[in-house]
Amino acid sequence: MRERPLTKNIDLDRGPLSLKEYEQAGGYSALRKALKDIAPGDITTLVQQSDLKGRGGAGFNTGLKWSFVPKVDDGKGHRYIIANADEMEPGTFKDRLLLEGDPHLMLEGMIIAAYAIGADVGYVFLRWAYKSAAQIIGKAIAEAEQAGYLGKNILGSGFNLHMHLHTGVGRYMCGEETALLNSLEGKRATPRAKPPFPQVSGLFGRPTIVNNVETFCCIPHIVNNGAGWFKSLSLTDDGGTKIYGVSGKVKKPGLWELPMGVTLRELIYDHAGGMQEGTRFKGALPGGASTDFMVEEHLDVKMDFAGVEAAGSRLGTGTVVVLDDKTCPVGFVHNLQHFFAQESCGFCTPCREGLPWVEKILMSIENGNGSEEDIELLHMHTHFLGPGKTFCALAPGAMEPLQSALKYFKEDFAKHINEKKCPWR
Amino acid sequence: MPIIYIDNKPYEVGKDKNLLEACLSLGFNLPYFCWHPALGSVGACRQCAIKLFKDGNDSKGKLVMSCMEPVSENKRISIDDPEAKEFRENVIEWLMINHPHDCAVCDEGGSCHLQDMTVMAGHTYRKYKFKKRTYRNQYLGPFINHEMNRCIQCYRCVRFYKDYAGGKDLDVFAANNHLYFGRQSDGVLESEFSGNLVEVCPTGVFTDKTLKEHYTRKWDLSMAPSICHHCSLGCNITVGERYGSIRSVTNRYNGEINGYFLCDRGRFGYESVNSSKRIRKAIIPGNEKNMPGETDHHTALSAVGDLIKKSNKLIGIGSPRASLESNFALRMLVGDENFYSGVAAYEHFLIKAIIEILKQGGLKIPSLSEIEKADAVLILGEDVTNTAPMLALALRQSVRMQPSLEAAEMKIPAWQDDAVREVVQDNTGPLFIASSYSTRLDDIATRTYLGYSDDVARFGFAVSHYINSKAPEVKGLTNEEQELAREVATTLKNAKNPLIISGTGAGRKAVLKAAGNVVKALSMEGKTPGAYMCIPECNSMGMAMMGSKSVEQAFIDVKSNKADALIVLENDLYRRASEKDVDEFLSGFKNIIALDHYTHRTTEKAGYILPAGSFAESDGTLISSEGRAQRFFEVYYPGEEITQSWNWLLNLMKAAGNEKANSLNTVDDFTALLEKTLSQFKGIVGAAPGHEFRIKGQKIPRKTQRYSGLTANLANISVSEPMPPDDPDSPFSFSSEGYRGVLPSSAIPFFWAPGWNSVQSVNKYQEEVGGPLDGGDPGIRILKNGQQTEAAFSADIPDAFHMYSSKWFIVPMHHIFGSEELSMLAPAIAERAPEPYLALNAQDAEKLSAPEGSFMQINIDGVIQNKLKLIINNGIKPGTVGIPLGLPGMKWISLPGWGGGEP
Predict the structure, then answer these.
(1) CB–CB of A341 and B177 under 8 A?
(2) Which of A2, A140, B39, B810 suits a disulfide with A103, CB 3.0-4.6 Å?
(3) Burial of B7 by CB count in 10 Å (0-12 exposed, 13-18 middle, 19+ buried)?
(4) pLDDT of res. B289
(5) Which of A341, A360, A391 sits opposite B176 (nearest CB)?
(6) What angle do CA B778, B782, B788 make, to 5 degrees?
(7) Maximum Cα–Cα distance for chain A, whole Å?
(8) Do the chains contact at B42 and A350, CB–CB below 8 Å?
(9) DSSP designation for B841
């Protein structure tokens, strides 16, 4: 039996474990251990050694991220620990499972992380639409406060942490950590320039760590079982297990906690049961809407950060969106661009103006009004809305499915233009 | 100074700059929108992209936004890189997706940064083939026109209005490509600095509504450098005229004073020049043959000349809103002993006290740009937003000094605006305000002290005592007052650049003495505190320095020593003294000559009225509250009927046979003679180049080289192109002919550079962007500090305020729109002024059972002012009544003072 540390307590039919049940299942032992035996700096080192990479999509070493928080507290105000639970990436629903299924695991991870970086205030920034998760997390925070895992002088250690639940208003932009911070401060959800990084100047200008829900859920297990154990869970160099998901026209869409590094083929054909009758696999976005398409030739790519990158895409959130041969790829990408154009915060020019243009061009092609010039314009956008040219990663992310669609489904675009209609309609 | 490589050539650049600033300072044309030299960088528009290379071997490089990258040693960048150029062109293309094709009917056209940057970036044909986005525009009040469809979402407007100027009613709404910059709903923009949106906005979203009333393109304006006449700060302005009317006032950059901004009174008050109340022809009394009435210049001159010759004794009353030269000319005409400054007595003594404080040693009089860097400020009794608006804007920057030190410690460059603001958060200060009513700066004050009149002075005295115990102690303060005074004292003492602000606004000498003690106490503690004293009018300082007598002194003197003729220079005496006193004074003269540019109650009493040039039709020198001599220049030639005041007076001297006048011809002659006669004005001649100044033998043109229709303008009169009028008084020509190139900073008629048609072209006139103008900022500081530092403290501590149940204590309330004489002639300003009112604390209104909006009257020393609308203002203390100062239609009352009031 393979190990499923993140989801072992989850039974959606039963509902989440109460605090007591979570404790009986070994919960909060990692926190006790950390507070009693491990210096904050050593926790950071341990997490760094475990090769845990951020599960929000960027894949940055979590321990390394924590290490940038100034070691010495200047005593001029709070430090913050924040869970990014604003899961709005199209096709992605892995954090929802963890939030609804085992809320204390994430909280325990956050408390340990707070202890490691010296944070005294925590926020769970939760997606607006996750109504039941809001109830579940709210209840879990109350339970943890009651039991002395949150609040003042936690478990007699002298360490304090006050935790708040904040529900967003449904803006994809808030998934970007600095836009999340602005939103949490009551400002417009626009991203911030880096440097300074949030580790130094984050929420209200104070040192702050923002991590993804799944990332926090790994922490208690690393503390309990060590970095070596965590690394051994993986089939590759990136530590741990990963919650993978598959959606699209597969037989059994869903989520599975698997060792990091299973192949795309295993995911689609073993776990998701293969393609539905009458459809054929045409391509897939490996890690949410803002990743490049992978196609037939990539089915045996190992789904870890390095593996997917070598195949020209990104692991992202690890939740696969499958494109089948009965779905128009132009329409598929148009749908995605509609989302990104709508969710652009409007701060920088290329994203604010470029994405709606791209969306309109795709619509025009889909309606049979496209031209060769339009393809050129789309290529221009994939280049000039790329990384480093826009203010944040939203537009570059939006361009990933487009640029790969233009590459892999070039003929389908051409057909639209030549036939002056969508061949799928 | 680091060396950077731009397209493989080495350049020395400023150390703490970003690459955009460095490139622009070197003279490169790199397009930008969201960056502004006073607002810093945010990286929103992506227009200033360049290529950054890792090292000399890196040939690929990466695109970066030059405004977001710091300068560092050996950094290698390319502006000409093909990818960077293509990207910049594309940014314009994106911006143009929704920008309307309405340049021809847009007020910004011809002075539009977006036009300039579009041409610079090389974008020509649009590939976008879909519908454009449209918005609903808003009514924003009488100053600003709103046209949202033109918006390119650079965020400059909100960054200026909210972040820089502290405004609360303009914001950005919605998201993605539906961003909306405006108010929550239609309504008048509240900020006193809203007019700057016109210049901050790179395109035609926010435009000058007053200009729209009589629209002219920038290229068709005659322009000259001028000085704002609407308060004492001496902000530098560019005034534009066409066809005999003034069309607009725009900012004239002066790095030490107004920088890139102006207040709304200064920007929109210009329409006084176009007022229907202007005096455009001379009026002389009738005789047997003629009814009194308008006459021509020469007839008036000889009539008044004869009158002066015949009169036994001629009294002259000058004016703090007229130039030094005009006042000095009057002084010459009537003789020193018969000349009065035209300032009310109380004000005369207050300004004298101010000069005494400023002349003492151990302090410095800061410029506004230095005030922005003060790190602890105490304001004593002055409502600066209303009496010296741009000073308030400077203070809004100073309160960020201490909080932003933390950002500096975190190595965040000062230009990285959002990041600095993130660290600073809402922290402000320290700024302490002690006043007799709550002011517009209270929102950024660390602590405020609201006190009755002299209690404000007592508070100031207490602060000085806690700074240095040799300063006299104030008895009878409450514990709270003592504690606050101690806090203020400690904070000022611990600051590097403490600053004390006071002025004539409270109308109390004790307040000024207290301010003087605080300054002295700080200097005795080894500090060099800044002291800035607000005074009412554009040349109040000049008149005080001239050392002449007050208006009331004239009233007294003529009682014992009768005079038969009076000449009043640019002054409405009814704004200086009570109606009764002025009536009595004026009735004592057989002949009254008024020399002014608009009709008022005093000109109505004059038999002889001579049409004077307004500031836009005159040359002259003003001394600002900072003690800075600055020259303003005639913008256009108003025809032969209207003449500059000093010129009328010169000709009157000549007509009256005054020999001293024989050697005088131009305004420069008066400036020079004044400097020679009164040593306190030493240096004023250097304020600007004189009339003989030429570059390569040429004058400086007031008109742009693109001035259109030169030969057609007067074609309805004559088809031959007329000679432009001659200007014997300045180095400027009334034409588009003359020298174009680097000009002396005080003689720049307008900012323009090839490819830079908007006001943003000021970049090309500065030593480095945001720095001083080439050759140094204009103006000469002539008020010098003394040497002695161990000054004696004032011991004139007033008694604590005592309230009487039988009478009210009445304080003057200042209004940026309303309290100043000339700007109220501008319809847009008048629209923003309050109705005459009486302000009471809610408690007092309840006691009187007077509902808000009911009419009240007030009686001070027998002067009854009625029809005052009651407004509730809890920012004034119980027992106090506030009434607006200087509103037209309100009687002159000596304030503050005691009075009775009733519904």
Answers:
(1) yes
(2) A140
(3) middle
(4) 63
(5) A341
(6) 135
(7) 73
(8) no
(9) -
A390 Cβ under 8 Å from any chain B Cβ: yes
SS3 content of chain B, % helix, strand, coil (to 5): 35, 20, 45
Quick one: closest CA in B to A370, which residue? Answer: B129
pTM of the model: 0.96
How is the beta sheet containing A121-126 ordered, strand by strand? A162-167, A121-126, A80-85, A208-212
Contact list, A176 vs chain B (CB under 8 Å): none
Beta A281-285 vs B700-701: how paired, if at all? unpaired
Q: Is B94 helix (H, G, I), strand (E, B) or coil?
A: helix
In chain A, residues with a C-beta closer than 8 Å to the C-beta of B98 are 353
Which tens digit of pLDDT belongs to each residue from B206-244? Answer: 999 999 999 999 999 999 999 999 999 999 999 999 999
Bridge partners (DSSP) listed for residue B629 = B623, B780
Choose from A389, A392, A394 for mutation: most chain B CBs within 10 A: A389
Question: Is the separation of the CB atoms in A123 and A83 below 8 Å?
Answer: yes
* Calpha distance B389→B258 (Å, rounded): 11
Q: Does the distance separating the beta carbons of A192 and B422 come in below 8 Å? A: yes
Percentage of chain A beyond pLDDT 90 is 96
CB-nearest partner of B419 from A193, A373, A388: A193
Alpha helices in B311-409 (DSSP H): 324-334, 345-359, 368-371, 384-387, 389-398, 401-409
The predicted pLDDT at position B291 comes to 65
Probe site for chain A from B86, B94, B425 (most A CB atoms < 10 A): B94
Q: Closest partner residue to A200 among B47, B64, B410, by Cβ? A: B410
Residue with tokens 């997917």: A308
Alpha carbons B866 and B836: distance in angstroms, whole number: 9
Q: What is the pLDDT of residue B720?
A: 79
Tell the burial category of A68 from Cβ atoms under 10 Å away from its Cβ (0-12, 13-18, 19+).
middle
The predicted structure's pLDDT at residue B723: 85
With a pLDDT cut of 90, the percent of chain B lying above it is 89
> Which single residue is written with the structure tokens 């002055």?
B382
Which residue bears the tokens 């949150």?
A150
ipTM of the complex: 0.96
Shortest Cα–Cα distance, B149 to chain A (Å): 14
| 3-class state of residue B862 by DSSP | coil
* Mean predicted lDDT score pLDDT of chain B: 95
Asked if the C-beta of B205 comes within 8 angstroms of chain A's C-beta atoms, the answer is no
Could you report how far apart the first and last alpha carbons of chain A are, in Å?
A: 47
Q: Considering only alpha carbons, which residue of chain A is nearest residue B156?
A: A347
Q: Could you say which of B45, B46, B410 has the minimum Cβ distance to residue A389?
A: B46
Mean pLDDT of A54-64: 93
Pair A10, A105: CB distance under 8 Å = no
Angle at which helix B645-655 crosses helix B297-310, to 10 degrees, equals 60
**C-alpha distance from residue B1 to each of B16, B710, B776, B883 (Å):** 9, 49, 21, 56
* Structure tokens that stand for A266 in this block: 């295993």
- Asked if B410 reaches chain A (Cβ–Cβ under 8 Å), the answer is yes
Pick from B44, B91, B130: CB nearest A347: B44
Query: Which residues, including other chains, have CB under 8 Å from residue A45's CB and lie 6 or more apart?
Result: A63
Residue B644 contacts residue B668 (beta carbons within 8 Å): no
Q: How confident is the model at residue B803 (pLDDT cuts 50, 70, 90)?
A: confident
Determine how many CB atoms are found less than 10 A away from the CB of residue B442.
16
pLDDT band at A58; cut points 50, 70, 90: confident
Q: Which residues of B touch A395 (CB under 8 A)?
A: none
DSSP B375: S
A80 Cβ partners below 8 Å, 6+ apart?
Answer: A119, A121, A122, A123, A202, A203, A204, A206, A207, A208, A209
